Amino acid sequence: MGISRKNNTGYFTAISIAVAIFMLSDVLLGSTSISLTDLFAAVFGKKGPGPINDIVWLFRIPKMLTALLSGIALSICGLQMQTLFKNPLADPYILGISSGAGLGVAFFVMGSSALGLTIGSSLGMNIGMAASAWIGALVVTFIIISLSHKLKDNLSLLIFGVMLGFIGSALIGLLQYFSSASSLKNYVLWSMGSFAGMTTVQLIILAALVLIGLIISIYNIKDLNILLLGEQYAKSIGVNVQRTRNRILIVVALLAGGVTAFCGPIGFIGIAVPHIARMLFKNADHKVLIPASALIGAAIMLLADIIAGLPGTSSVIPINTVSALLGIPIILFIILKKK
Amino acid sequence: MPDLLSIEDLSLGYNKKVIYKKINATASDGELIGVFGANGVGKSTLLRTIAGLQPIFSGKIILKGINYRKLKLKDIASSLSFVPAQMNRANNLSVFDMLGLNCYFRSNWLGKIEDKDKDMISNALKLVGLDNYGDKNSAELSDGEYQRATIAGALVKDCPIIIFDEPTAFLDIANKYQITELLAKIAQERGKTIIFSSHDLNLAIEYCDKIWLMGYESFYNEAPQTLKNCGAFNQLFTNKNILFDPISNTFHKGPQ
After folding, report:
1. Complex ipTM
2. Residue A3 to residue B87, Cβ atoms within 8 A
3. Mutate to test the interface with A, among B72, B86, B96, B101 (most CBs of A within 10 A)
4. Domain count, chain A
5. Looking at the whole model, is its pTM more than 0.80?
């Protein structure tokens, strides 16, 4: 018995339709517009190999799927971190997990060039960047979880995240000083965020990570609901809070770490989406909030990707710029509404 | 037959430092027990230790004849409800769903509760006087209403012992009376053992079967009348100029 459960099915249907429309639009729109007929022909293989076929299969569909998976992943990470920390501003980006990933990539890309090492293949470069981003994200996640009992209030949590960000950029600045122009470019491109250029193998890895993260998140629902009333209360009910916390940590490492590794640091979606879900569904139950955040996150990320592609022009803007422009107004609205 | 709960020579403390020594107390079925002591003396620590949330510094706590050292948090939690002093409020969590969280070990893996428990929740809400509150947003309840909802939650958890840390703090006098009366009613009608900390001594003397007094010199585990007769309430303050008045059941400034 929720407060307004009768609307849930309606909202879920509407958001699912929006996700489907954005998925389709994300494939159709871009520097080259593709017509629906051409898309059907490409998908159902009526035409032989051709430029449209290549754009659809090699570029647009992988990019669309990456955006979809990233939106789901970052949103359900943000939701669980907000509940765990009892902090409406908690998300992987604000807490410095992305800074950690950035530092990992910077060390790999620029460190190797500073040391005079050359990474031969672009595949090696890709794998190396993803792995180092992941390690960086994992290290920061573990630091945050081990300090989480001291970071209960919004202020200390935010300061901690901002400080990690500063340390990260200071070290990155130092590395930039010693590195070559070409490796610097690699780093800067990664840090702007992009859903493009995913190979099939990378896409399968990301999809597997998101699937595992999603399954653990669904398993977390019951404990997340208990955490709504505070850690003390959860313990008194008999919940092993330490174990719950570890499971949330694993989800964040898999999902936020994975997305950041492949797509770069993408901010603000993780904070904003859970709030939109709470406002829309007027419900605190994670049975509703997990699927709602996943769907809304997917819709917003796809929309951001469509906008970033600047349909009809030949240029593209970084996904991070678009996600900030979409997310920050929502976050400001939340902060101002709380006062 | 052993006492439901017995505490033997318990010391409270943090990080190798003792904060309170030599607690000996018992609790039986259906008793309403008030825990009194000056701020900082260790009331919350005592209640948290009994709830199993804090390691035992030294001494013993025995639940139904079994030493706590042999019990897991889950075992303790199945015999005992604990309501902390500052409960988080979650926006848009309905009162019904909030109470449903107490069915953690009886609900399925997604937290879906059975019909039997739904009835139990409705009955608990009725008992605390929140009959039609099930669908309300728990974050929008008044302090008194929220406190009653947490009491209903403890009833839904359905344990023989219920512990409340300062259930009447921050309430006005009318609500303090209502809540204390409600606790007495639950102890009497449902046979629950209720242990609660408070600063409202006059209310406790009126309603409690027993008082655990954490005095400056020693710990008392007695009926209110006995404590009154032996002047033990004066141990609540080190200041010798504040004295307990057994007629009004409150404190007065003593003779200079």
Report:
1. 0.88
2. no
3. B101
4. 1
5. yes
